[in-house]
Amino acid sequence: MKTEPNDLAYPSENPPVFSGLSKREAFAMAAMQGLLSNPEDTDTSCESTAECAVEMADVLIAELNKEPN
């Protein structure tokens, strides 16, 4: 199944709820939490941390969409 970046990360079917985080946002949030969990990494700016988290989310989505071997 293909992973669409803008599909809801946690959809609800009963009743249908069409709000919340997209998969891309949820993946980026998890990546950012991991990046920020290292208190010794103080040389990184907020902007570069956010950019890296979004890039990681995009790379994960691309990897998930690859055809299995």
Structural class: mainly alpha
* Cα-based radius of gyration, to the nearest Å: 14 Å
Helix fraction by DSSP (H/I, runs of at least 4): 40-55%
Instruction: Give the number of DSSP strands.
Output: 2
Main sheet overview: 2 strands, antiparallel
- Give the count of structural domains: 1
Distance between the termini: 14 Å
Descriptive overview:
The structure is a single chain. By secondary structure, the chain is mainly alpha-helical. It has one domain (1-35, 42-69). The protein is built from 2 helices and 2 strands. The chain has a two-stranded antiparallel ribbon. Helix 1 packs across helix 2 (46-64). The longest helix has 19 residues, at 46-64. The protein is flat and about 45 Å long. The chain starts with 11 loop residues before the first strand and ends in a 5-residue tail after the last helix.
